[in-house]
Amino acid sequence: MGRLSISKVPNNDISSRNILVHPPEPPMEVLCKDPAQGIYVGRTKMLNVPFYWTYKEVTNPHLAVVGITGSGKSYFIKTFLTRASFVWNSNALIIDWAGEYKQWVRMTGGKVVSLGKGSYLNLLDLGGMKPYDRIKQVMRTIGILTNIDQYPEQKRLTEQAIEKAYKDNKFRMDEREQRDELGRPLQAPTLKDVMTILEERSSMGTYEFPAELENAIYRLKQFTKPGEDFFAQQSTISLTELTESGLVALDLSGLPDERFRALGALAMLQFIKERMRATGWATEKGLRLIVVLDEAWKIGKDENSDVVMIVREGRKYNFGLIVASQNPTDIAEAIFSNVGTTFILKIKFEKFLNYIQGTLNFSEYMRDAIAKFGVGETAVNMAFSSANPYPSTFLIDKIEGEEPMREFFLDLSKVLTKEQKEEMDVARSVSFKKDSLRRRLREFGLSEGRIEDVVRLFDQKSRHMDIASFIILLERFGVERSNITMFLKEIGIEDTTVINIFTLADKRKADVMDRDITQVILEEG
What we know:
By secondary structure, the protein is of the alpha/beta class.
């Protein structure tokens, strides 16, 4: 018979023995390899090991970040950018789809550039490219934003007109450096020049397919109309100023719609990609630039977009791309499959969990943990650059930022069924960040004074509020029920519970009508 002996084993040895650990974690020497050259995120949930993220351990420096509203997604991004500026002296460019980051950028001493509010970006600028290469990029972008790929003749006409616009401005189509006889840089044509070429051809009346020509004109006209020609005038934005000025937000919220925002984001990514391609990747240079693309579903989902191309090409560029969304299905599967690291915060809906799990192939244990996450808890999936015996997905107890995350809580106990209350794993409250609530209330059209009233009530109630009272308060301030429903779903409340919430709120309104709602909330036990 053998002998059973007991011995002391260090945590990092335990963590490397998958048979003993559930869920397992990478060993300490991987999670905390070089604190001076990594971004501190937080401590692992199981063995309380500090985790420092570094691009040196993974296949590429690109990140995907997913989580519902209020899960801590933007808080993580802000923390990451702040620490990267200290660790690697990284510049950061936030392509700010909804204007969410501009206030924070200004508060931290950064710069905000607002397209649609006096700033312009010429879509036909070369950014160091050859004209022929830039034409291909522009046509690919137009193909993503319109259905021109289904009409080969319209596509050919547009491409020919862009090429003629460059040649009319004395550009040599297969050269990068473009200067005139006196050595001065040539000025790029604009989409308005392309429109003029197409319209002149149409006015001649000699083209055999006039309908195709008119439709090609119509497609470009939407980007050249007065007041909406943000990408059809000479650039007022310097690429160097955007990428080498510390923290910068390119605010796209002033543009008319999703097509214009997508056009601005794609053009900027293309310029940055070509600029970085010229220098090439070098580990010793660190991350010279971190580009954040948040909630850009139009270009993050399309397999032909430059977002997917950048991620697939890995370390070719000396910058890190952070693609973030509250809806994982808005991010192409190719991005999750190819980014070096994915940070998964709270995800509530089954279809989103199925999508992430199917792409990253993590365990059922991990899936259940993600579904029960609170604010700031996260799972990390790392595509390590070499084969290793330890797991690629592990849990972080809470993102530890530069300042504590202020969470607000909505109490659900009064709308849960008896069966739900008896279930141990049913959440009795939902939580979200204070900043997320402020941002959402602004989107609903509440004044700053009203927003402060809501925040003050949470603070006076130790950051907790009964959810029915919360609904009555928002409706009193003029927020439509459809918007409230959207917000409740975003923070992870199921449809059946939403119905129960509104039913309870309606029953209470009769009692509240003759009294001030703020006093009723303060009296609640």
